[in-house]
Write a structure and sequence with these properties.
Number of helices: 2
Distance between the termini: 15 Å
Largest sheet: 12 strands, antiparallel, barrel
Strand order of the largest sheet: 1-5-6-8-10-11-12-13-14-15-16-17
Helix content: under 10%
Order of helices and strands: EEEHEEEEEEEHEEEEEEE
Strand content: over 45%
Oligomer: single chain
Radius of gyration: 22 Å
Number of strands: 17
Length: about 325
């Protein structure tokens, strides 16, 4: 998935379904008729843990979650929450003689929870915007089991930031609450992650076709640091992923090389704090596309792949278009 000097960019994916986030979503905030809106430390703490659970999807390289756009119940009186994430990543082994594997992932996401504040009989929606960015690196070593099969343990490290902004709603919270809501109003949560992955990489290449299969298990622990005083958070990113790709010539020639067709299959099982946080425990992606070979020319990019994918899981389904290049 991220080997063979590939950099993958998920262009678009829209997933329909319910955003079921028990700790981060928009349950009505407790309120007292006499004192106005109140946000307890436990409320913020649960949301801090939950938003790191969302970040955990972006720090592990995975085709099925490389770009997500999920919305829920925008018109509900109990609030709404929209989630968007995109991911850019790549990885490769340096050479057969130096089997050091390096990978990297950059990701950005936005989560827009809407809180419902009550003041007696009055009910008012308070929108917020939580934006996060993260970067993950990995260094591993290829142990050659056979000519076509490698075992690849990887050490992973990650760094991320979540920022919150009430924007137009801050005036209402400032008037109605007597508590410090620094995290909701332009607060920040920083997090680092340490962990590892283990991968089985199978490469079966023949003149008429190529088969790649990767089986990967990842476990990365996220912990907040140097954040707004109101919140601390932690989350565990655990997932198991199977990825397979088949490539073969179409019979057409472009740029003095055969134009290949590409078939893909990916299945991910989400464990730890990822399990169920977005309303599903697993995602499957099936895809088909074309690969253009430009290696006959003196250019940096040797292959370009355009793949359309259908993604589905419990309560969710959607389509994506992915662009990847090899060097």
């Amino acid at each position: 998935m991220f080997g063979r000097q590939a950099i993958a960019i998920a262009m678009t994916k829209r997933v329909s379904g319910c955003l079921l986030i028990a700790l981060v979503s928009t349950a009505a905030t407790p309120a007292l008729a006499q004192t106005g809106l109140r946000l307890t430390h436990d409320d913020l703490q649960k949301r801090a843990n939950g938003v790191l659970a969302l970040m955990s999807f972006s720090i592990v390289p995975d085709i099925t979650t490389s770009s997500l756009s999920i919305g829920s119940g925008g018109g509900s009186t109990s609030g709404s929450s929209d989630f968007f994430m995109t991911q850019l990543g790549g990885g490769d082994t340096l050479s057969d003689s130096v089997p050091i594997y390096l990978e990297g992932v950059l990701a950005a996401s936005r989560y827009d929870p809407t809180f419902i504040a009550t003041q007696g009989a009055e009910s008012r929606r308070i929108p917020t915007k939580w934006n996060s960015i993260s970067a993950t690196g990995g260094i591993g070593w290829d142990f050659k089991l056979t000519d076509e099969l490698k075992l690849r343990p990887i050490f992973n490290f990650a760094l991320g930031n979540v920022s919150s902004d009430l924007r137009a709603a801050s005036w209402y919270v400032g008037r109605k609450t007597g508590r410090d809501v620094d995290f909701l109003d332009r607060g920040s949560l920083n997090a680092y992650g340490l962990g590892g992955s283990v991968m089985l990489d199978y490469e079966h290449y023949r003149p008429g076709y190529e088969v790649d299969v990767e089986l990967r298990y990842s476990d990365i622990r996220l912990q907040s640091f140097s954040s707004s005083a109101a919140v601390r958070g932690k989350a565990v990113a655990q997932s198991a992923n199977l990825w397979a790709r088949y490539r073969a010539p179409t019979g057409m020639m472009l740029l003095q090389r055969p134009l290949r067709y590409v078939l893909e299959l990916t299945h991910s099982e989400f464990l730890g704090d990822q399990r169920g946080v977005l309303g599903f425990d697993r995602l499957t992606s099936v895809g088909a596309g074309l690969e253009l070979d430009s290696s006959a020319y003196n250019v940096v990019i040797t292959r370009t792949r355009l793949v359309g994918r259908y993604v589905f899981g419990t309560n969710v389904s959607g389509f994506s278009v992915g662009l990847a290049v090899s060097f």
